[in-house]
């Protein structure tokens, strides 16, 4: 039986780990320093607690890091400090350059590094995200087997470390930035009392995010995590010699929603927060 360590059981991490359990893996998690919400998710999905990260490192064949991108390198350093020598999968939304840094960190202890990216919503009976993997072929197959027959669709890429990260940010730099842009456009129309007319125009295009106003509060509540991801997307664009302005701008927009982290705001509050600077002052 394969043993997987998950860092950490957030909404995505816990759901992905639960799919690995369905294929027969034991999934470890470390409660130290984690929130009550993380504990509740871990218990709900049947994850096995360990006393410390060092115990996870000793027992796990594979460690999967799914955390906010700003914490990805620190998480890798903590695992390396425990002399981990198994397969380390970084599934975070980081740029290829950041992924290269993570590989350099983790390889110091002799671990094999896999670059991963989850694209889609957390897996469930109705959601089937794709988990793209790049890196050493043997390690990719081992990781993919964790999700055989589950709601997570493992997709193996033929390229090296950084390819899965590049794919994630290629997609999210459009998907998440367009959500933010739609909210700003709607806020401007609302200020001038023409939001109904704007929606009438947008609804003529059935695929327009602009018509999905019910999603703006969800985007705002997740922006604490999406903002750093947009900064990483900007880094990736810069590395490729492409304009990063929109990704940087999207991150700045999301900073205005930082106070709405993990809440359930209504649309009015979401629009009000767009009128405040990052320090909470009206603009």
Number of discrete helical segments = 11
Low-pLDDT sequence parts? none
Structural class: alpha/beta
- Major β-sheet strand ordering: 3-2-1-4-5-6-7-8
The percentage of residues in β strands lies in 5-15%
Distance between the termini: 57 Å
**Shape summary:** globular
Number of strands: 8
Please give a structural write-up.
- This protein is α/β, with parallel strands linked by helices.
- Helices cover 49% and strands 13% of the residues.
- Strands 3-2-1-4-5-6-7-8 form an eight-stranded mixed β-sheet, sandwiched between helices.
- Strand 5, helix 5 (96-107) and strand 6 form a beta-alpha-beta unit.
- Helix 7 (163-191) crosses helix 8 (195-202).
- It is globular and about 60 Å long.
- It starts with a strand and ends in a 9-residue tail after the last helix.
- The model has no long low-confidence stretch (mean pLDDT 93).
